[in-house]
Amino acid sequence: MRGYKPKILCIAQQKGGVCKTTSVLSLSAAWALEGKKVLMLDTDPQANLTRNILDYEKLKKDISLLYKGKQSIKSIIHKTPYKNLFIVPTRTALNRIENLERTLSTFNALKKALPQVAKIYDYVVIDTPPSLGLFTISALLAATHVLVPVQPTFFCQEGLGDLNETIKEARESNPGLISVRYFITLYDKRTVISQDLTETLRSQLGSMVFKTIIHRNIAVEESQYAQRTIFDYAPRSRGAADFKALAKEVEQWLENAS
Ligand SMILES: Nc1ncnc2c1ncn2[C@@H]1O[C@H](COP(=O)(O)OP(=O)(O)OP(=O)(O)O)[C@@H](O)[C@H]1O
Ligand SMILES: [Mg+2]
């Protein structure tokens, strides 16, 4: 067995529509193309990640079985159309778990399950909902690294404090949580506000913000509509280049942070 440290990356931000799901899919797809074996987990009852890559109507098993303790993680891992890229999908029925099963074992379900498979994959990447509820907390309790997308809009810093507090609390029960990084997303170079807020964020968070910026690029949105990865749909697009660069930076962090 290789010298082994699990790499479990949670992408979190309670603000909605800031590119969490897009980043989970695009970073995972970039690594899969490089030959890394990647497992994505969809913990968002909206099931956007699942719908982006699988035939949602045909799904029989999903992550709710794991939260309920009814099935092992291995039995709910699905192949995707892409080599090296796997997913534990979700269905919107997951909402019921948030309401009915807020027990300690539900909060700890991922933390308990992931060590069973983490050795098989180079990276596990977890998508989370736009809230700091059960599913985001359960992902933070299992993660080794947390990546936070920040959109440079007037409200971009709203909620970052709450998220940081939640990460701090998760760390108390999860000493394996090594480090947190941020990246700028949905950047619109035509607006002064995008530039100003990006500078402000960099001056506040310094080297915790990755150099790569994910620009607003229509091909990214179109690729999701076409249920393909950005590298498959528009390999020469700005979006593909941005995510490839970000994947490189994040990979260095995952491999070196300890
Ligand atoms: N770089 C980009 N350029 C253009 N559109 C983008 C880009 N990244 C994401 N989008 C679009 O923005 C929308 C929100 O993205 P996404 O679903 O990834 O956000 P999210 O943070 O996961 O949202 P939620 O909080 O609802 O889960 C989607 O329609 C997506 O296609
Ligand atoms: Mg999402």
Count of individual helical segments: 13
**In oligomeric terms, what are we looking at?**
single chain
CATH superfamily: P-loop containing nucleotide triphosphate hydrolases
CATH architectural grouping: 3-Layer(aba) Sandwich
Overall shape: it is: globular
Tell me how many strands there are. Answer: 8
Strand content: 15-25%
Strand order, sheet with most strands: 3-4-2-5-1-6-7-8
CATH class label: Alpha Beta
Mean pLDDT value: 92
State the distance separating the first and last CA atoms.
20 Å
Radius of gyration: 17 Å
Q: What string gives the helices and strands in order?
A: EHEHHEEHHHHEHEHEHEHHH
Percent in helix: 40-55%
Total number of domains: 1
* SSE-based structural type: alpha/beta
The main pleated sheet reads as: 8 strands, mixed
- Which stretches of 5+ consecutive residues score pLDDT under 50? none
Q: Layout of helices and strands, plus pairs?
A:
Elements: E1 8-11, H1 20-33, E2 38-42, H2 48-53, H3 64-67, E3 78-79, E4 85-88, H4 94-100, H5 104-107, H6 109-113, H7 115-118, E5 123-127, H8 134-142, E6 145-150, H9 160-173, E7 179-187, H10 192-205, E8 209-215, H11 218-225, H12 230-233, H13 238-256
Parallel strand pairs: 1-5, 1-6, 2-4, 2-5, 6-7, 7-8
Antiparallel strand pairs: 3-4
Helix pairs in contact: 1-13
Task: Summarize the structure in words.
The longest helix has 19 residues, at 238-256. Helix 9 (160-173) links the parallel strand 6 and strand 7 (179-187). An 8-stranded mixed sheet has the order 3-4-2-5-1-6-7-8, sandwiched between helices. It is globular. With 258 residues, the protein is of the alpha/beta class. It has helices spanning 20-33, 48-53, 64-67, 94-100, 104-107, 109-113, 115-118, 134-142, 160-173, 192-205, 218-225, 230-233, 238-256, and strands at 8-11, 38-42, 78-79, 85-88, 123-127, 145-150, 179-187, 209-215. Helix 1 packs across helix 13. It is 43% helix and 16% strand. The chain has one domain: 3-Layer(aba) Sandwich (Rossmann fold). 45% of the residues are buried. Adenosine-5'-triphosphate binds at residues 16-22, 44, 46, 48, 130, 186, 214, 216-217, 220-221, 224, 239.
